[in-house]
């Protein structure tokens, strides 16, 4: 079975690592992989990673399954693009159709979906450019802080949380006038929810679903959740405060209506649903949907999966997820991300990474790395994910931080407080 992995971060490194543990006869291919992924799959390099290129490689390498890591190819319609072409229609795609990807690609679509299916989320209203005046009036009727969201994808920067009404009004107008280009031509204004966030992952085959382990992501660059938002600076799984009762509530009030809604909308969806949740006084609300796995959560979530990942994905394709039991390691897994100096703003690439050969207590997933002259260099904002496990979180964290002390590169940046609040 030939599997093509789309995406080149640590999430995709974790996919490749997990797939390579399979007992099945598989061959893995990946597009523009990092140094780690390139070692454990057949690399395909290109400067133009568009849908047509991906399709040509699916044909050339007789790909049976495409596992899509990031959201952009899904939002651009990779699933439909392959399914609608006779030469690639038999290839499985793990990821939804373009219509389904709107759950992530359009916040307005996602909020309307949640309203339609009675899924708890923050109160909201959406405004287009023609509705600036109505939007400014609406802002006066809600309590601060004000949450403004660009409708479309904005590389994680499209959400503003603002304390002052005047500033919120200014930003609201700027957004509608093109602050985030096409993405903010519609803006969702919503009520602020005060609580603890967590990430819920569901694998859905179009008929059946399975809930994967929950995880917590640390999004800000600075300790104590301060500073700019990043792609994610660390993660842990399981989430200790999540008890059985809360999990049941999430399943009943959020997961079931979400999958039923997807079916009811006739959305062609075989893939991961990542539900960003916030727990407000033991009541779960949806902050956002993503139509893929999370990064840095995948690195801990997949580490806990005991099943053969090829079996799992095959069942997803065959709509037989109800026929298998999932098993998860109950130890705690922690992931501390090493980033380039300056990230998430400007950073330099090409710094020599040393010490990788001294690692014994953790699993390293490469992200922004490249191999040059037999050495590994930095090649992106997030560079490595350092994953460790132990029966107690503290011990897992000790291992991750001990590993970090052995790895070095100029500008090495990481949060020292992952798991601090749990
Ligand atoms: P999103 O892209 O929708 O996940 O938003 C990015 C981040 O903004 C979330 O991870 C939350 O930390 C925060 N956020 C979004 N919506 C809300 C809300 N209604 N109340 C509080 N925080 C929010
Ligand atoms: N960890 C958040 C994300 O993948 O979007």
Summarize the structure.
The chain has 422 residues and is an alpha+beta fold. 31% of the residues lie in helices and 26% in strands. The protein contains 13 helices and 22 strands.
Report what the structure shows:
The chain is α+β, with helices and mostly antiparallel strands and 422 residues long. The chain folds into 4 domains: 2-96, Rossmann fold (3-Layer(aba) Sandwich); 124-190, ATP-grasp fold, A domain (Dna Ligase, domain 1), CATH 3.30.1490.20; 196-323, D-amino Acid Aminotransferase, Chain A, domain 1 (2-Layer Sandwich), CATH 3.30.470; 332-404, Phosphoribosylglycinamide synthetase, C-terminal domain (Glycinamide Ribonucleotide Synthetase, Chain A, domain 4, Alpha-Beta Complex), CATH 3.90.600.10. The chain contains 13 helices and 22 strands. It has helices at residues 10-19, 35-39, 51-60, 71-75, 78-83, 98-105, 107-116, 132-141, 165-176, 244-264, 297-304, 309-318, 393-406, and strands at 2-6, 27-31, 42-44, 65-68, 92-94, 124-128, 146-150, 159-162, 186-190, 196-204, 209-211, 216-217, 220-222, 226-229, 234-237, 271-280, 283-290, 332-339, 363-366, 369-372, 375-378, 382-390. It has a 5-stranded parallel β-sheet, with helices on both faces. β1, α1 (10-19) and β2 (27-31) form a beta-alpha-beta unit. α6 (98-105) packs across α7 and α8 runs antiparallel to α9 (165-176). The longest helix has 21 residues, at 244-264. The protein is globular. The two termini are 41 Å apart. The chain binds adenosine monophosphate (AMP) and glycine.
């Amino acid at each position: 079975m030939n599997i093509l992995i789309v995406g080149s971060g640590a999430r995709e490194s974790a996919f490749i690592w997990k797939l390579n543990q399979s007992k099945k006869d598989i061959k893995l291919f990946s597009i523009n992989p990092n140094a780690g992924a390139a070692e454990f799959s057949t690399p395909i390099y290109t400067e133009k990673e568009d849908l047509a290129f991906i399709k040509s490689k699916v044909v050339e390498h007789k790909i049976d399954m495409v596992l899509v890591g990031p959201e952009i190819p899904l939002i651009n319609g990779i699933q439909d693009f392959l399914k609608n072409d006779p030469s690639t229609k038999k290839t499985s795609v793990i990821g939804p159709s373009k219509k389904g990807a709107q759950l992530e690609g359009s916040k307005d679509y996602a909020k309307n979906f949640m309203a339609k299916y009675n899924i708890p989320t923050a109160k909201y209203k959406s405004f287009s450019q023609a509705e600036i005046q109505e939007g400014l009036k609406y802002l006066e009727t809600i309590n601060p802080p004000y949450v403004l969201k660009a409708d479309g994808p904005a590389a994680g920067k499209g959400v503003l949380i603002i304390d002052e009404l005047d500033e919120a009004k200014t930003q609201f107008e700027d957004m509608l006038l093109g602050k985030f280009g096409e993405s903010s031509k519609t803006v969702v204004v919503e009520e602020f929810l005060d609580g603890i966030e967590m990430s819920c992952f569901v694998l859905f085959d179009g008929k059946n679903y399975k809930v994967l382990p929950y995880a917590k992501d640390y999004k800000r660059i600075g300790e104590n959740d301060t500073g700019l938002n990043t792609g994610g600076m660390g993660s842990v799984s399981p989430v200790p405060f999540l008890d059985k009762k809360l999990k049941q509530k999430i399943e009943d009030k959020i997961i079931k209506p979400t999958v039923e809604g997807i079916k009811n909308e006739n959305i062609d969806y075989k893939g991961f649903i990542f539900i960003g949740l916030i727990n407000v006084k033991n009541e779960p609300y949806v902050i956002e949907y993503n139509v893929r796995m999370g990064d840095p959560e995948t690195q801990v979530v997949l580490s806990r999966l005991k099943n053969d990942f090829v079996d799992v994905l095959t069942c997803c394709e065959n709509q037989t997820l109800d026929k298998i039991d999932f098993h998860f390691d109950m130890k705690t897994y922690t992931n501390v991300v090493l980033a380039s100096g300056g990230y998430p703003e400007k950073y330099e690439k090409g710094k020599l990474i040393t010490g990788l050969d001294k690692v014994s207590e953790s699993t390293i997933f490469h992200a922004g790395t490249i191999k040059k002259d037999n050495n590994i260099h930095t090649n992106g904002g997030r560079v490595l994910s350092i994953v460790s496990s132990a029966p107690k979180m503290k011990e897992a964290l000790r291992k991750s931080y001990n590993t970090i002390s052995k790895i070095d590169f100029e500008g090495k940046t990481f949060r020292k407080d992952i798991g601090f609040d749990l």
